[in-house]
């Protein structure tokens, strides 16, 4: 509901992991929709809602990575860094990727489940290019 930014990726991934971890418990605690009374089905199926939210978080994760890619490509600074230091964008991206490595398994799962087509319309474009 807020503006997307690359810095929010890790909060999104934390919530995604929490929902992924709670789904087996929900499956064990809640009966299937077919087993519930018609009167009790006034509220939406919690398992469906959790899965839906998890799916939207996965889509947001892919979009955040695409936004990061776009912002890197859009940086046209040609000014050299004084004293030969590391460019601030390079430092930012390396720190970002270092932290993203802590979510390696979750990111692999997200990109498998929420592929984004590349610009030519082929499936699995940008989301699959993880650079092994």
TrEMBL record:
The organism's place on the tree of life at top rank: Eukaryota
Region Disordered: start-end pairs: 112-132
One Pfam family linked to the record: Exo70_C
Domain Exocyst complex subunit Exo70 C-terminal: from-to ranges: 2-120
InterPro entries assigned to the protein according to its UniProt record, in alphabetical order: Cullin_repeat-like_dom_sf (IPR016159), Exo70 (IPR004140), Exo70_C (IPR046364)
Keyword Transferase listed: no
Biased segments, Basic and acidic residues type: 112-125
Any one Gene Ontology BP term: protein transport
Cellular component, GO annotation: exocyst
Residue ranges the record marks as coiled coil: none
One Gene Ontology molecular-function label: phosphatidylinositol-4,5-bisphosphate binding
Signal peptide as annotated in the record: none
Alphabetical keyword list: Exocytosis, Protein transport, Transport
Family: Belongs to the EXO70 family.
Function, as annotated: Component of the exocyst complex.
Official protein name in the record: Exocyst subunit Exo70 family protein
UniProt organism field: Canna indica
Biological classification of the source: Eukaryota, Viridiplantae, Streptophyta, Embryophyta, Tracheophyta
